[in-house]
C-alpha cells in the first residue's frame, strides 16, 4: 500500500472529535484529518455514529446545534423497528434509511472475517453505496450524520470511502477505524449480548473487534479492483458533478 510519512493523529485531536452524548458513545466529527497534499478535512460537515435510538432531548438539541439536518441510518429494517432512530420523525431533520448490509436483500456471501465482509460490501452493496453518496453530496452546507448500530462496520466503510476520496492517507483512515474500539467500551456488554443464535462466541468476538488489518484489506481491494474511491464512485454511477461537490464539502479551502 503506497503511503506517505504522515504520523498518527495527536491524542488531543482524537478527543476533540468525539461528541459527548448521553445516549450514544461513538459519534465523531470527521474533520481535522490531514490529506496527503497537506490540506485538512473540514470540521462540522460529516459525522459518523453509532445507534441514535437512545438520544435524549438534550443530545438531539446538541446535534442540531452542530448543523446536522440530514441523518443516514444504515441499518436494516428489523434493526430500525426494534430501535427506532430518534430523528426518524423529526421535523428538523431529513431522515434516510439506506439498508447497507441486509443478508435478505443483498448478495453478501458467508464470510469469516470483517476484512472479507468489507470487501464483499464494496462489491455487492453498490446500489446502497450509490444512494448513500448521492445523499452525502447534497450541495447545501448542512451537516450530515451517518450511523449504524455500533458505528463500526457499515459506518466505518462510509467514513473510509469519504476520507479516501479526499486523499487522506490510509494510515489515518485505518486509525480512525480502530478508534471505534475505545469508543465502544461503554456498550460492549450490550453488544456481546446480541450474538446471533448459532454464531460461535469466538467468531462473534472477532466481529466485535476493530483489527486494523480489516480496514487495510478493504482499502487494498478498493485500489486493486477499482483504482480508489473516486473511480469506485464513478463505476457505481455517481456523477462527476456530485463527486466534486463531495470534495468541496470535505476539504478546507
UniProtKB/TrEMBL annotation:
GO terms for molecular function: phosphoprotein phosphatase activity. Pfam families: Y_phosphatase3 (PF13350). PROSITE patterns: TYR_PHOSPHATASE_1 (PS00383), TYR_PHOSPHATASE_2 (PS50056). Residues 127-196 form the Tyrosine specific protein phosphatases domain. It comes from the Bacteria. InterPro entries: Prot-tyrosine_phosphatase-like, Tyr/Ser_Pase_IphP-type, Tyr_Pase_AS, Tyr_Pase_dom. Belongs to the protein-tyrosine phosphatase family. This is Protein tyrosine/serine phosphatase. It comes from Paenibacillus alvei TS-15.
Amino acid at each position: 500500500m503506497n503511503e506517505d510519512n504522515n504520523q498518527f493523529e495527536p491524542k488531543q485531536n482524537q478527543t476533540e472529535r468525539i461528541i459527548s452524548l448521553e445516549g450514544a458513545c461513538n459519534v465523531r466529527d470527521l474533520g481535522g484529518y490531514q490529506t496527503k497534499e497537506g490540506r485538512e478535512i473540514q470540521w462540522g460537515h460529516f459525522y459518523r455514529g453509532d445507534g441514535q435510538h437512545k438520544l435524549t432531548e438534550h443530545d438531539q438539541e446538541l446535534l442540531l446545534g452542530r448543523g446536522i439536518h440530514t441523518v443516514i441510518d444504515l441499518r436494516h429494517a428489523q434493526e430500525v423497528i426494534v430501535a427506532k432512530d430518534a430523528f426518524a420523525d423529526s421535523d428538523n431533520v431529513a431522515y434516510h434509511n439506506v439498508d447497507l448490509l441486509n443478508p435478505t436483500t443483498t448478495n453478501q456471501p458467508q464470510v469469516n472475517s470483517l476484512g472479507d465482509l468489507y470487501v464483499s460490501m464494496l462489491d455487492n452493496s453498490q446500489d446502497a453505496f450509490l444512494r448513500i453518496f448521492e445523499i452525502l453530496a447534497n450541495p447545501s452546507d448542512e451537516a450530515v450524520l451517518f450511523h449504524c448500530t455500533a458505528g463500526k462496520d457499515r459506518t466505518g466503510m462510509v467514513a473510509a470511502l469519504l476520507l479516501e476520496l479526499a486523499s487522506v492517507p490510509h494510515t489515518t483512515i485505518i486509525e480512525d477505524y480502530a478508534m471505534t474500539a475505545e469508543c465502544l467500551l461503554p456498550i460492549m456488554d450490550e453488544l456481546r449480548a446480541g450474538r446471533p443464535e448459532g454464531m460461535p462466541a469466538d467468531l462473534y468476538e472477532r466481529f466485535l473487534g476493530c483489527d486494523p488489518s480489516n480496514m487495510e484489506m478493504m482499502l487494498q481491494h478498493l485500489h486493486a479492483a477499482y483504482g480508489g474511491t473516486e473511480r469506485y464512485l464513478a463505476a457505481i454511477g455517481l456523477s462527476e458533478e456530485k463527486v466534486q461537490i463531495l470534495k468541496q464539502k470535505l476539504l478546507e479551502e
